[in-house]
TrEMBL record:
<dbReference type="InterPro" id="IPR051336">
    <property type="entry name" value="RhoGEF_Guanine_NuclExch_SF"/>
</dbReference>
<dbReference type="InterPro" id="IPR001849">
    <property type="entry name" value="PH_domain"/>
</dbReference>
<dbReference type="GO" id="GO:0005085">
    <property type="term" value="F:guanyl-nucleotide exchange factor activity"/>
</dbReference>
<protein>
    <submittedName>
        <fullName>MCF2L factor</fullName>
    </submittedName>
</protein>
<keyword id="KW-0597">Phosphoprotein</keyword>
<dbReference type="GO" id="GO:0005737">
    <property type="term" value="C:cytoplasm"/>
</dbReference>
<keyword id="KW-0344">Guanine-nucleotide releasing factor</keyword>
<dbReference type="Pfam" id="PF00621">
    <property type="entry name" value="RhoGEF"/>
</dbReference>
<dbReference type="InterPro" id="IPR011993">
    <property type="entry name" value="PH-like_dom_sf"/>
</dbReference>
<dbReference type="InterPro" id="IPR001331">
    <property type="entry name" value="GDS_CDC24_CS"/>
</dbReference>
<dbReference type="Pfam" id="PF22697">
    <property type="entry name" value="SOS1_NGEF_PH"/>
</dbReference>
<feature type="domain" description="PH">
    <location>
        <begin position="170"/>
        <end position="292"/>
    </location>
</feature>
<dbReference type="InterPro" id="IPR000219">
    <property type="entry name" value="DH_dom"/>
</dbReference>
<dbReference type="GO" id="GO:0035556">
    <property type="term" value="P:intracellular signal transduction"/>
</dbReference>
<feature type="domain" description="DH">
    <location>
        <begin position="1"/>
        <end position="158"/>
    </location>
</feature>
<dbReference type="InterPro" id="IPR035899">
    <property type="entry name" value="DBL_dom_sf"/>
</dbReference>
<dbReference type="InterPro" id="IPR055251">
    <property type="entry name" value="SOS1_NGEF_PH"/>
</dbReference>
Length: 292
């Protein structure tokens, strides 16, 4: 932050800043200042206080459960930050900042650190759990690990959510994103869609589903190359079902990985095939919670 973000306000370097980067500090760095402040002023001190009593570490994570959501915000901005970096990363401005700091790695390596940090927390807690089987504080460690894993899941889900295209509404109004994943989907519409019904028996559609508390979205995954870099996925919106109007059939004859979601008294039926029975059961469990 000091060697790059603050230098964007340095009058001696302003002329080196590429035009694409003008007034884009918040996009490039996201809420990194917020993460830095939280760790420097609060979390680091609390963790250091546990050096003599490591069994208290779990409580730090449980106490700061809400604060750790700042990572989700950071990761949601990451694709925008990376796109901006691809435009400006090789500019003289960044080269000059890197030279002054005498860093071997360029800024993008450091912008990845918060993403890596949250996954390191789960590894730390897993290691501590291994060493503290059935001792005092084990239950708290398990709860702390579940908290961190939940944050990682939210981060992962939100990264997929921001790639949805073509949805006309506002996804933030659909309630909490509970699950997302890819499935084979067959459709069976009762009203005047005989062709659809005949086709439905054969070839499935590949669909990426987003389950919210208020809505289930069906999207088609598309992968695009970005300027010779790795492929980035986007999810093209196809249709949606209001959760207040759907029903579910947990088992479909002949395949224990399939379940049905139906709409309007089975007028529209969506047969959904998961990649495993475990995944199917997890989705059914979440859908049941929404419906009850």
């Amino acid at each position: 932050l000091q060697g790059y973000a603050s230098e964007m306000d340095n009058p001696n370097l302003v002329h080196l800043i590429p035009s694409a980067l003008q007034n884009k500090k918040e996009i490039l760095f996201g809420n990194l200042p917020e993460i830095y402040y939280f760790h420097n002023r609060i979390f680091l001190k609390e963790i250091e206080n546990c050096i003599e009593n490591p069994e208290l570490l779990a409580r730090c994570f449980l106490k700061r459960k809400e604060d750790l959501q700042i990572y989700e915000k950071y990761c949601q901005n990451k694709p925008r930050s990376e796109a901006l970096w691809r435009q400006c990363g090789d500019s003289i401005f960044f080269q000059e900042c890197q030279r002054k700091l005498d860093h071997k790695l360029s800024l993008d390596a450091y912008l990845l650190k918060p993403v890596q940090r949250i996954t390191k927390y789960q590894l730390l807690l897993k290691e501590m759990l291994k060493c503290s089987k059935n001792s005092e504080g084990t239950a708290e460690l398990e709860e702390a690990l579940a908290t961190v894993l939940d944050i990682i899941k939210s981060v992962n889900d939100s990264m997929h959510q921001i790639a949805i295209t073509g949805y006309e509404g506002d996804v933030s109004e659909l309630g909490k994103l509970l699950m997302q994943g890819s499935f084979n989907v067959w459709t069976d519409h009762k009203k005047g869609h005989n062709k659809v019904k005949d086709l439905a028996r054969f070839k499935p559609m590949q669909r990426h589903l987003f389950l919210y508390t208020k809505m289930l979205l069906f999207c088609k995954k598309r992968e695009e190359n970005t300027d010779g870099h790795e492929k980035t996925a986007s999810y093209s919106f196809k249709n949606s079902l209001k959760m207040s109007t759907v029903g579910i059939t947990e088992n479909v004859k002949g395949d224990n990985k399939k379940f049905e979601i139906w709409y309007n008294g089975r007028e529209e039926v969506y047969i959904i095939q998961a990649s495993s029975v475990e995944l199917k059961n997890t989705w059914i469990s979440e859908i049941r919670k929404v419906l009850t």
